[in-house]
Amino acid sequence: MVERLSRAHARRIAVRAQLLTADRPADIVETIDALTVVNIEPTAAIAPSADHILWSRLGWPYQPADLRRLVEDDRAIFEWGGFYRPMTDLPLIRPLMRERPQSADGRKWLAANDVFRREVLDRLRADGPLRPADIPDTAQVSWRSSGWTNDRNTMQMLEILTARGEVAIAGRDAKGRLFDLAERVYPSDLPELSDEDAARERAERRLGSLGLARAKGVSQPYEPVDVGTVGVTAEVEGVEGDWRLDPAALETAVRFRPRTALLSPFDRLVFDRDRLRDLFGYEYLLEMYKPAAKRRWGYFALPILHGDRFVGKLDAKADRKAGVLRVHAIHEDEPFSAELAQAVDAEIRELSRWLGLEVAGLAAP
Known about the structure:
Elements: E1 3-5, H1 7-17, H2 28-35, E2 38-39, H3 49-58, H4 64-72, E3 77-80, E4 83-86, H5 90-98, H6 104-112, H7 114-127, H8 153-164, E5 167-173, E6 176-181, H9 182-185, H10 195-210, E7 212-213, E8 232-236, E9 242-245, H11 247-254, E10 260-262, H12 268-271, H13 273-280, E11 302-306, E12 309-319, E13 324-332, H14 338-355, E14 358-361
Parallel strand pairs: 1-8, 13-14
Antiparallel strand pairs: 2-4, 3-4, 5-6, 7-9, 8-9, 10-11, 11-12, 12-13
Helix pairs in contact: 1-11, 5-10
């Protein structure tokens, strides 16, 4: 059986699966469990991505200190592969950890530095949690790279050991990540799953968080955007190719209660640019890496979601020293109605209130 969806129905499935309707989740753990992953990107032109993503779901009650407590004290959330994940998903990730490092060069480097590996683990056992700068570089063979990791041996060893599940990220502070032995961070009483069962459950959980996804997608290093054969086959009106649909999403999308949201550039709803184009007809690119003269929407423009449509981009920056959220431009993909303009303005003010800033610029009174 093939489910045939209109584009509007497909969009509503995707938006509701990502908890971006008026039916907000109750708390941080519920939110991350439903999303499965929350991106970690510390760039704070507005707010670090994890904080922004959680605020866009939970609203003003969300506070970054609550996330830190869940990660560092309660151990209900853990960090792996650049994402926060619910600790209950750790059994699904352990088979992936056993595959790391995936590259032949990484495996050779790790084998050549076995003494260094044991010294890093011993140092963490004695003094952890630690920052990379707290651990001496005693590598037998230096890490070679054409990028910023060249000769950064301690950091590279910690990255590999974290990917393998021997080391874990115990928390973060103003200087970055704190590393410790995995046995001190991860619980020991979680079940063990076979590689096959874990892979299937990861795909099912991912499909539940997306609502609708392609069976195959562009390869990603830690968190795929595709789901394989789980779910049911679906076709979307006016879009080529088949999709995989979470059957539970069909019913929930009928009860769609819209709202307006300002999304992080690292939000999963906009992360897969092909899916974003196919379902929403929305063009978006994070331009922080472009020269200023070549930017169309701004350094850190936020996608503006209204109901089941993306309607524009907000070019704004949090100027914490001045105590203001500076609104440089509101780019309208189509001319805003008075009602839409009012909804976007209200959401800008909610964002500034959460940040503890006054609004300045185009959206100022």
